[in-house]
Amino acid sequence: MERLQKIIQKAGIASRRKAEEMISAGRVTVNGVKVTELGSKAGPKDDILVDGKKVKRVDLAYFLLYKPEGYLSTTHDNFNRLTVMDLMPQEVSVFPVGRLDYNTSGLIIMTNDGEISHALTHPKFKLEKEYYVKVTGLLRKEETRDICNGIDLGDFFTQKAKITKVSYDDKKEHSFCNITITEGKYHQVKRMFEKFDHKVVKLKRVRYGVLDLKGLNKGEYRKLKIHEIKKLWNLSENGN
Ligand code: URA
């Protein structure tokens, strides 16, 4: 048995809050009987209608995918390029939570749960995202300090970031580091380093909240565990 608002939300009809409003407004029937009480539950065999239309039962699915470079994080591409959907099993209908650039690799969540996707990508939820970065040139202390304090990228000011594991290859003149940010603006990490004339030549998301890539090779995915999904919900509500 599951709460009606949850069933309606899972079917993609409305957010849980909107579903509650629909129930209270008398728009929902179970086996032909109008239900307005919010705690009401229904089982898999019950016939649920919203505004007279049948609610299709959908199971929520949550995956963690190790996206390789060379894949778009969209569900469809007009130019027929590879997308993250090409890496997922055919029978599940999921979509990526947020975006990684075409040439960025790393951790991306794939789900059919619109509510969690909305929560995780909402700017007010300060979920930590950690990236491994390789940039051209020598990263100077003053530059990493400025990046960590927040910098002006023209159209917005970045929030505080953390930079760890800084190293330099003096033969190839490349620097390496991990950067943790709590936002996800378009090309954000690339733009943060490019502000100091360091071109990002490799970018990989290694952590998303509590999740990392342990045990996965590029192109592989795994199902999220219940406790991981709960943890993500908590983080998206309370921040890291
Ligand atoms: N920042 C970027 O610049 N690109 C990504 O794909 C992710 C974060």
CATH superfamily of the largest domain: Pseudouridine synthase I, catalytic domain, N-terminal subdomain
Q: What portion of the residues fall into strands of 2 or more residues?
A: 25-35%
Shape: elongated
CATH first level of the largest domain: which class?
Alpha Beta
The number of helical elements comes to: 6
Main sheet makeup = 9 strands, mixed
Rg, rounded, reads: 21 Å
Q: What is the H-and-E element order?
A: EHHEEEEEEEEHEHEEHEEEH
CATH architecture of the largest domain: 2-Layer Sandwich
Helix content: 10-25%
- N-to-C span: 32 Å
Bound molecules: uracil
Question: How would you characterize the overall build of this protein?
Answer:
It is a single chain. The protein is an alpha+beta fold. The protein has three domains: 2-54, RNA-binding S4 domain (Structural Genomics Hypothetical 15.5 Kd Protein In mrcA-pckA Intergenic Region, Chain A, Roll), CATH 3.10.290; 62-123 and 213-238, Pseudouridine synthase I, catalytic domain, N-terminal subdomain (Alpha-Beta Plaits), CATH 3.30.70.580; 128-208, Alpha-Beta Plaits (2-Layer Sandwich). Helix content is 22%, strand content 28%. The chain contains six helices and 15 strands. Strands 7, 8, 9, 10, 11, 12, 13, 14 and 15 form a nine-stranded mixed beta sheet that branches. Strands 3-2-5-6 form a four-stranded antiparallel beta sheet. The protein has a two-stranded antiparallel ribbon with strand order 1-4. A hairpin with a 2-residue loop joins strand 13 and strand 14 (211-212). The longest helix is centred in the last third of the chain and has 13 residues, at 226-238. It is elongated and about 75 Å long. The mean pLDDT is 93. Uracil is lined by residues 100-101, 104, 187-190, 203.
